[in-house]
Design brief:
Helix content is 44%, strand content 16%. The protein is built from 13 helices and eight strands. Helix 3 runs antiparallel to helix 4, helix 6 packs across helix 13 and helix 7 packs across helix 8.
Length: 291
């Protein structure tokens, strides 16, 4: 598969082995309910990978420590630098299957500008222990990091990290500025796309979403981007690429419309992941924090 072909496919498609898709199809043919439990298990299981070369410079600048989040009794790994000159700290929240060093270009630019950076590996991500995770774990981790290392001047979240930050702010996380990048709006849409990428019928997605609602005792769409954005009044920059194949750009417009004080910044040709290293995006973020 060429680079351009890879860029046009969601990360879930690229990372899912063919035997997993085959197993899902067999289960769906036997019982959609059974297939929905299988996909739910997959949905909560992030992929782990070695530290990429592009993240090693940032990793060397970080100190890190293992932290237990009491509310979920799960381990995270907190990263921080101690070279800040501005007195302002920015929290970074990675996306699904990401890690605390996932935004190296953004973080290094902010460090150079005098900010302290706090980041983290969410439960079952990066160096953190475990093999299962979920968005409520991200939210609780963010709120706990605020108690340990806050208050934060601002925060930047990519994908699921952005949605988690919107929820954390709605729950009381005190920030002056927020940036979300490639963030999805609807949990229903996420589950539907997840199942579609596994080449399974939509009825499996509906049963999986219903299973999650019962498991967590609420409609999971209450955690969706635009729903949470209604409770966010701080200045918020919404960054999204029109060619994002993991999260459709319509999510950005829906979230921005729900925000009280939102600003939209649309890029083209960067996709879901390359946007994190786009110099124009990085300059936009640093300017947004500086004003």
């Amino acid at each position: 598969m060429t680079k351009s072909e890879k860029a046009g496919k969601p990360v879930q498609v690229l990372l899912t082995p063919s035997y997993i898709k085959f197993t899902g199809k067999v289960l769906a043919a036997v019982s959609p309910k059974l297939a929905s439990r299988f996909t739910a298990w997959l949905f909560l299981k992030p992929y782990k990978y070695k530290l990429p070369e592009r993240e090693k410079e940032l990793d060397k600048q970080f100190h890190y420590e293992r932290v237990t989040v009491p509310s979920i009794d799960r381990e995270i790994v907190a990263y921080f630098n101690k070279t800040a000159a501005s007195g302002k700290t920015v929290l970074l929240a990675h996306g699904w299957s990401g890690r605390g060093t996932q935004m190296p270009d953004i973080a290094l630019k902010l460090i150079h500008a005098g900010y302290e950076i706090v980041s983290f590996d969410a439960p079952a991500h990066g160096r953190a222990s475990g093999n299962m995770s979920m968005m409520p774990h991200f939210i609780d981790s963010i709120l706990h990091l605020d108690k340990l290392y806050g208050p934060f001047y601002g925060a930047i979240g990519h994908s699921l990290g952005g949605m988690s930050l919107l929820n954390a702010v709605k729950e009381g996380l005190p920030l002056k500025k927020l940036v979300i990048i490639g963030t999805a709006n609807s949990i229903t849409h996420i589950t539907r796309e997840f199942v579609r990428n596994l080449e399974l019928p939509e009825k499996v997605a509906k049963k999986m979403k219903s299973y999650f609602d019962k498991k967590f005792g609420e409609d999971m769409d209450n955690l969706s981007g635009a729903f949470s954005a209604k409770g966010v009044s701080i200045p918020t920059l919404v960054v999204h690429d029109v060619h994002d194949v993991d999260v459709h750009v319509s999510s950005a417009y829906e979230i921005k419309d729900a925000l009280i004080n939102g600003e939209l910044y649309i890029t083209e040709g960067q996709g879901h992941r390359k946007v994190l290293g786009d110099p124009n995006v990085i300059n936009k973020i640093t300017t947004f924090f500086a004003v």
